[in-house]
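Entry type: protein chain
Record version: 2
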Amino acid sequence: MTSVDERPPSDITTAAAGAQDAVCAASASDRAAWLEALADVLDANASELIELADSESHLGNARLTGELARTSAQLRLFAQVVREGSFLEAAIDHPDTSATPPIPDLRRMLIPLGPVAVFAASNFPFAFSVLGGDTASALAAGCPVVVKAHEGHPRLSRRVAALAVQALRGAGAPDGTFGLIEGRQAGVELVQAPQIRAVGFTGSVTGGRCLFDLASQRPDPIPFYGELGSINPVVVTPGAAEESRAEIVDGLLGSFTMGVGQFCTKPGVVFAPTDTELAEQLAERIGADAKPLLNERIGAGFRDRLGELAGHDGVEVVGGSAPTAEHSAAPVVLRTTVDEVLRSPQTLLEEVFGPATLVVDYGSVAELRAVLPVLPGSLTATLHAAEHEDGLAERLIAELSRIAGRVLYGGWPTGVAVSHAQHHGGPYPSTTSVHTSVGTTAIRRWQRPIAYQTTPDSLLPPALQEANPLGIPRRVDGVMTQPGETS
């Protein structure tokens, strides 16, 4: 298949490479204006885009309205990041002959990697798609972007891409700054295209691992930033179960069924004391109404994975049942024990993408702590503890920190704020890197460091020139300085 502008994928990657120097050289104000133009065009066409998205994803007007607002806000946030300038991590060491060894004049900053391939996700047709966080952060870094559209929302992808090209052209961005391709084989070729210097991916473990391997096996391997699968464990301590069981059941119900369980941060495994009957109470609340999933492929995957869990010895279906329609599902609550998880971690600790959660009963704190080390890497881990359990909570937070990128004390992991302190990533298989795909530091994925030694001021990039003509924060001789300050 061809792109929105009818060019073959190879022409689009070539155009992206041709635009790289101009995109990189664009001023911060120009690059920020491009991002703001993209945000403006999304907001100006919100009604049309939300209607298109709902027709292809079944996610509903309210959810999609919020997601579109998040997407345009994210673009504007990265415009602020570009203008502020600290993302360049500019650092200057003046000569110091007394140091051991002596320090010459050294100046370091981050520069763009080059054209970036972005694979859109099915479950967030705006925020993790054509103009989602990967695209926003890559453009902010100074990298042209080629998006591989998701087959779950092709009409929406084409329309957003057409609006993006129009907005970027109107804002003065060079041709080739943005492109869209479609088709599975085109996606494979995109990862292998020599012009592409990094890849952002959100999707399944199977698909992501295949593309990750392709990126690693190139003659010139490139970074592959994949968000793959996550069970997002929740730990309920004995004290929390005694004091807040009803509130925990309510919160868990809302979290694991949100978006029909199709959030990457859905709590998929919950550890609870055996005598709390948390699984039974949760099952009493779930209801039997089936809701549409994103597409038939996800429906088939949910049925297969649910059948694998439900058919496993030692796993009980406490509430709900397997879906009957091809792409709809009602909530399902399953239960097992720590012993069973320790016997079959690969089967029981794999993500179920859809509205299902597995409650794991534990008989003692020692038993709970024995199972935590076998948990796979996750985007999130959540702890519900009582105030009088400070010593236990401290130990559990330390243990959960080893397997998750974001640790929550109380609350629920669904809903990911876009901010400076956010981290949306985690150990494999949740991601293939140590970086975040949400929040302002997502820009770091698309940059590499370069240092200049004893280079005349006139030949240095403006960010490293002595007078700081860009007016950005810099580390000078080890001291962070703001514009107008001297070290």
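Comment: The chain has two domains: 9-228+433-448, 234-409.
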